[in-house]
Write a structure and sequence with these properties.
5-stranded mixed beta sheet, 9-stranded mixed beta sheet, about 425 residues, about 30% helix, about 15% strand
Length: about 425
């Protein structure tokens, strides 16, 4: 046999070569991860320093919640109660998102400083640890920046989990982020993980009572989870929804509150991230009727500006809306997730609303567009009735600590991005 003839490798030799290649790849990834982490620390420190320069929100008489004997956080007032809904803040927390994270922090601080809400509800996606956009897998970095921001502002707030807050590839799980938000150092965060017997984290209720001890409004937080049907990374947009045992928890808890409220079912509002299927049913009916009211649908404000005026929701439905109608407690619902949808419509007697988003990062080029960016203000009257309206960020009344970015306040995001 010629010396030039190749010696055929044995399976054992091939395995050794495979191991060497694998180890080299792991080493390269480890080095890259280390570099990403170091650069991210610098960027997050910069944003942390910016947060430290912000002023605490000035209140004349800030309401302070207390825990009642059943463990519910409770605000007491005989006056109007103001809730600000923020959604899809999308802080990346990595070296690739430092500038956009700063913009998001700037926007949140400016709006809350002007609105001076009694409570802020963040309906999901505080974090966006998608590595090719944020430059990190570390979702706790984003959570930390936002929690530090809210503590510096001195505003009471509660987060609801979104699909991006704890991705399958993120460093930290929902339980770990729940534990993080529950730390004593975040005195203004009213997050409670909820019962271990109920799916998800953060299923909780915050009550508003008058001086007589009567519940005038119950604010219901629900985890709408992330992805289902094998879509572990969310690339097929197969979204989850509120589960059956959460619907049971919702019913049982409201009935418990009713029993403690002179047998009067309290009025309530619900907050979650991913729209329940009835949002799509309602909007599709409105759209099919040439964007005019029907017997079931009454338009209030806003629009659906996602592609083809779409609503992205789950293919599953575990009866939450049906239970809402049966109990007659929940007057309205507020969600996020679809960054360009901000409509509010009455559907079969229940107000279904999207909030303005903050997002500078997730949608490609979204930082250049501003029609969809802002907050939702919800005013709750002493009798439990409510009104809500949208507030765009790009108003003079929202004086930002840093100069606001230049944005397009005309046109449509998708039509512009398709050019």
């Amino acid at each position: 046999m010629s010396k030039k003839d190749k010696v055929k490798k044995t399976p054992k030799q091939k395995f050794k070569v495979f191991l060497k290649v694998l180890l080299i790849i792991i080493l390269i990834l480890a080095v890259l991860s280390g570099i990403m982490a170091c650069v991210s620390v610098v960027g997050n420190k910069s944003n942390g320093n910016f947060i430290s320069t912000l002023e605490t929100v000035s209140y004349e008489n800030q309401l302070e919640p207390v825990k009642d004997d059943k463990g519910f956080y409770t605000f007491t007032t005989d006056n109007n109660f103001k809730v600000v809904q923020l959604t899809d803040v999308h802080i990346g927390g990595g070296f690739m998102s430092t500038q956009k994270d700063s913009m998001a922090i700037n926007a949140v601080a400016a709006m809350l400083s002007a609105e001076k809400p009694d409570l802020v509800v963040v309906t999901g996606d505080i974090a966006y640890p998608v590595p090719f956009q944020a430059g990190t897998f570390n979702n706790k970095s984003s959570a930390s920046l936002f929690a530090d921001l809210m503590e510096k502002l001195g505003v009471y707030w509660v987060p609801v989990f979104g699909n991006h807050d704890t991705e399958a590839y993120s460093y930290f799980s929902r339980k770990q982020i729940s534990d993080f938000y529950s730390q004593d150092k975040y005195a203004h965060c009213l997050f409670q993980a909820g019962s271990e017997d109920v799916d998800g984290y953060g299923n909780q209720i915050i009550n508003i009572k008058n001086s007589k001890g009567e519940i005038t409004q119950s604010l219901v937080m629900l985890d709408s989870h992330s992805y289902v049907d094998g879509d572990y990374l969310g690339i097929m947009w197969k979204y989850d929804t509120i589960h059956e045992n959460q619907v049971k928890w919702y019913e049982d808890t409201l009935n418990e509150l009713k029993a403690d409220n002179n047998n009067i079912m309290p009025k309530s509002l619900a907050f979650f991230h991913i729209a329940i299927p009835e949002y799509k049913e309602a909007w599709d009916e409105y759209k099919a009727n040439n964007f005019a009211d029907t017997d079931n649908v009454k338009y209030v404000y806003g629009t659906a500006a996602e592609k083809e005026y779409s609503v992205y929701t789950s293919e599953h439905n575990y009866g939450f809306f049906d239970k809402v109608q049966e109990l007659g407690s929940t007057q309205g619902m507020f969600c996020g997730h679809d960054h360009l949808n901000n409509f509010s419509i009455n559907y079969k007697g229940v107000r279904l609303s999207y909030g303005y988003s903050i997002d500078y990062l997730a949608y490609t080029g979204i930082m250049k567009f501003g029609l969809q960016r802002g907050c939702t203000v919800i005013d709750i009257a002493p009798d439990g009735s409510f009104n809500s309206h949208l507030e765009n960020y790009y108003q003079d009344k929202y004086a930002a600590a840093k100069e606001k970015e230049q944005v397009e306040l005309k046109g449509n995001y998708y039509s512009e991005m398709d050019k």
